[in-house]
Design brief:
Number of domains of chain A: 1
Number of helices of chain A: 4
CATH class of the largest domain in chain B: Alpha Beta
Largest interface: A-B, 11 and 8 residues
Largest sheet of chain B: 7 strands, mixed
Helix content of chain B: 25-40%
Shape of chain B: globular
CATH topology of the largest domain in chain B: Aspartate Aminotransferase, domain 2
Distance between the termini of chain A: 14 Å
Strand content of chain B: 5-15%
CATH class of chain A: Mainly Beta
CATH superfamily of the largest domain in chain B: Type I PLP-dependent aspartate aminotransferase-like (Major domain)
Strand order of the largest sheet of chain A: 1-2-3-9-8-5
Structural class of chain B: alpha/beta
Order of helices and strands of chain B: HHEHHEHEHEHEHEEEEEHHEEHEEEH
CATH architecture of the largest domain in chain B: 3-Layer(aba) Sandwich
Largest sheet of chain A: 6 strands, antiparallel
Oligomer: heterodimer
Helix content of chain A: 10-25%
CATH topology of chain A: OB fold (Dihydrolipoamide Acetyltransferase, E2P)
Number of helices of chain B: 12
Strand content of chain A: 25-35%
Order of helices and strands of chain A: EEEHEEEEEHHEH
Chain lengths: 128, 457
């Protein structure tokens, strides 16, 4: 059973989001997603400063099995990316919710997060 | 790995396993109105005897003229061993095998090909080849647009001194992908891409620039200056090169301060006969940082569990069988057989042989320029450093002169004003593009000079 922290929000395309104290939002892929993808070998990070709308493909996570798009959970502007993933993409496998974060955004509207799934809804979704 | 078609019995067995009556049932999903009953204008098949006769008659019409036409396809010596080895059963397939790893020999050959191309271009990575030079330029433009994520314009600068056929094919392929190709003028005195014309784009968001070396007129471009200008403005540099010329010229990986980003071209000069226009193959090399945007297959070398060397397809996540519509390209095959010939050709010539061939091409061309420019009515249009082609202006109709020489079994050049389409180069009235490879030795040049002088009298 994969880990689904209760303090995060989730999308049906398996991204997680965390609202930070400074108002930025951190985004990664769920433990369930990294497990399904298998060994991750490359991450194409989004461009800093780019403004991306909800649902748009914004970066690519490539495993030995597949290259999968990461979709923007909520609209916003990219403010930071996890450069450590350039050399160690496998960090997503090892630590999907901490060291394996992918990028941070300044959300267009913080309240958009409320529309995303909480842990229990996401757990139900994963079981389907 | 030989190709053995299934027998009727095997086909029936397979159909019964999946529970259908005929292979056609597999295509039931395609709506009936999209299917056609037959192909108009495609005649029924001929038997071997008839097709042999037809093709022999057509080949005889071509004759064996003395060829001074280049313009993208070049008449080079190909050692007899090249096609003797290439047509061995073990190599004789046009396709990258579908169960690729089962064909270690084919994979190793492709790996060697890639190694040779990276050595020749001084780039980090090569793919297993593309269709031809023209489509390789188009793929490079698409790749540049994917790779240059800082640029949003999808505008690609294309010099008018690029082979016009390459430009047209590129346009055909990219026009539906919202990519704009912008013409860049060449300097009318030198034929080189004009820096002044490029500078006009300095303040615009440009995604990529194409640099042709040598350019279509045979002239050597200032590749260092253009590359540096492009990189200063965050523009991806696409080098379009004649691979044989790289045995002499600075390779694209060393252009300017940081090298070209993508290098493409047609592999025909490396072991493929001109053969009425094909099949040839395209090659593509790039910097390592661009590799995940590179189209086509890439073969890598690895070791198995027991430490034995083996060859495998690598970085396949970019490809269409995995990434579907988001693949870097939906070209899923390549010109495997021509690449095989080319790899054998390069291995037989070696670096020294390639260099000697390139030098001979250049020397013969210089001799030809000297002889032809001495003729009344012939003018060298661009007196510039060149590789193995030159533009000459005649004082009579180029079309008539070329036809007159063709009657004497001499193909004296490519008619710049008329051959492809009039709109390309209106400024080149009565100009011809002439090429001398290592095969066009002094006596051939003498034959051409005598006939041309005669035709211009």
């Amino acid at each position: 059973m994969s880990e689904i922290p209760t303090d995060l929000r989730y999308t049906s395309s398996h991204e997680w989001v965390r609202l930070e104290e400074d108002g930025t939002v951190t985004i990664g892929i769920s433990d369930h997603a990294q497990e399904a993808l298998g060994d991750i070998v490359f991450v194409e990070l989004p461009e800093i400063d780019s403004e991306i709308s909800q649902g748009e493909a914004c970066c690519v996570v490539e495993s030995v099995k597949a290259a999968s798009d990461i979709y923007m959970p909520i609209s916003g502007e990219v403010v930071d990316t996890n450069q450590a993933l350039v050399d160690e993409p496998e960090m997503i496998n090892a630590s999907a919710y901490d060291d394996g974060w992918i990028f941070k955004i300044k959300p267009a509207d913080e309240d958009d997060i409320e529309q995303l799934m909480d842990a229990s809804s996401y757990e139900a979704e994963c079981e389907d | 790995m030989p190709f053995v078609p299934h027998t009727e019995t095997e086909i029936k067995e397979m159909l019964s396993v999946i529970g259908i009556d005929s292979i056609d049932n597999l295509f039931d999903e395609i709506p009936a109105h999209l299917k056609i009953d037959g192909l108009e204008n495609v005649p029924a098949g001929l038997n071997e005897m008839s097709i042999n006769r037809l093709m022999q008659n057509r080949a005889a019409e071509d004759g064996q003229p003395l060829c001074f036409i280049g313009a993208g396809a070049y008449d080079h010596h190909i050692p007899a061993a090249v096609w003797q080895i290439t047509t061995r059963g073990e190599y004789y397939t046009a396709y990258t095998p579908y169960q690729a790893e089962a064909s270690q020999g084919t994979l190793q050959l492709t790996y060697e090909f890639q190694s040779m191309m990276t050595a020749l271009t001084a780039m980090d990575v090569s793919n297993a080849s593309l269709y031809d030079g023209a489509s390789a330029v188009a793929e490079a433009a698409l790749m540049a647009v994917r790779a240059n994520r800082k640029s949003k314009s999808r505008k690609v600068l294309v010099p008018r001194s690029l082979n016009p056929v390459y430009k047209e094919v590129t346009h055909t392929i990219v026009k539906h992908q919202n990519i704009e190709l912008i013409d860049v003028e060449f300097d009318s005195a030198t034929s080189k891409t004009s820096m002044a014309a490029l500078e006009k784009f300095s303040d615009e968001d440009i995604t990529a620039v194409v640099i042709s070396q040598p350019n279509f007129f045979g002239t050597l471009e200032d590749v260092d200056a253009i590359t540096n200008w492009a990189h200063e403005h965050n523009i991806v540099v696409i080098a379009v090169v004649n691979p044989l010329s790289l045995a002499l010229l600075k390779p694209p990986g060393q252009w300017g301060d940081s090298g070209a980003d993508i290098a493409v071209g047609d592999g025909q000069p490396l072991g493929a006969p001109m053969s009425s226009g094909g099949p040839y193959y395209g090659f593509m090399c790039c910097k390592k940082s661009f590799v995940r945007q590179m189209p086509g297959r890439i073969v890598g070398r690895t070791v198995d569990q027991e430490g034995r060397e083996g060859f495998v397809l690598t970085l396949q996540a970019r490809e269409q069988h995995i990434r579907r519509s988001k693949a870097t390209s939906n070209i899923c095959t390549n010109q495997g057989l021509v690449v095989t010939a080319s790899t054998i050709h390069m291995s037989l010539l070696g670096p020294q042989g390639l260099k000697q061939t390139a030098i001979s091409c250049h020397q013969n061309t210089q001799l030809m320029v000297e002889k032809l420019s001495a003729i009344d009515g012939v003018e060298v249009v661009f007196d510039q450093p060149r590789f193995h082609e030159v533009v000459l202006r005649l004082n009579k109709s180029s079309k008539e002169v070329l036809n007159k020489l063709a009657d004497q079994n001499i193909l004296a050049g490519y008619d710049l004003a008329n051959a492809y389409s009039l709109k390309d180069y209106p400024e080149f009235e009565n100009c011809i593009l002439v090429c001398a490879t290592e095969l066009r030795i002094a006596q051939d040049i003498e034959t051409l000079a005598t006939a041309l002088a005669d035709a211009l009298k």
